[in-house]
Known about the structure:
A: mainly alpha; B: mainly alpha; 70% helix; elongated
Amino acid sequence: xxxxxxxxxGFMVIAAVIAIKARDLLSAIIAQGFVGYGLVICFLLLRxxxxxxxxxxxxxxxLVIMVAIVLDSSREELQIRFDARQAFTMVSALIFMFLFIxxxxxxTASLSPFGEASLRMSEAYIYGAYEQTGxxxxxxxILFDFRGYDTLGExxxxxxxVMGVLTIIRLRGKK
Amino acid sequence: xxxxxxxxxxxxQIMSALIFIYGAYIITHGHLTPGGGFAGGALVAGAFxxxxxxxxxxxxxxxxxxxxxxxxxxxxxxxxLCLATGGLFVGSLTFFHNYLPLGQAGHLVSAGLIPLYxxxxxxxxxxxxxxxxxxxxxxxxxxSL
Lengths: 175, 145
């Protein structure tokens, strides 16, 4: 798993460098989307599902908003011409759609039926929480031990929010 | 910013001490009773906000206090990360590994690293909320100058 994680993180680093160096804004945003969705896969592999759900929602929202802004501000640059490059893009998009549907069918086949959620995770929490964490308050035991990554992520969200407020207010105050 | 009347000041002094102690209790007993770092940190920040609102403060003092709370916030996050990274060197060699002895259940010093995480997260939340509050007040003062 470490190998897979290092591979994904290396991929994210490359995408981040591309996002900084890209010539036009749209490719920079798409490269940045690679970073965000790579982070989602990392969270899933590290067993922080709550954080992965939050990250996937926020990433999708910000990506859609930023793509909308870029398309709105630079519409003239994106005139569609039908040439060999365009045909290659469309064919590869069709192939990826086909692959996506194929994998989606395989993934849904292994899910538990609707209405009967899988209990693997909760059983481990219910029957092993006290022995493993030694905390009488099971909520805290789960938050700071089993879901340590989630708690770290939440603290980081607060930290980032404060940084954002400090930056914006400082800019406004100096004017 | 002007302070309020002496009645408000005295009541705020007594209440903020009580609120601060209650917040510290919630944070340190996070592994035994309901609550924890996030809830207790908000209470501790509330105690400071009550004092600032009732007494008022000079512009420069507010700025100094904001520098301090911002620094403490960053330090607390860094300490949480250091504690979590410590798990990489002891025992099962995983991030966020609880490597201190679990102790006897129900005692204040038990559950390994969880109380320490709670305390640092509590400090981080309190300092974060306080610095947001201070920044907003400073901004208002700057505009009115």
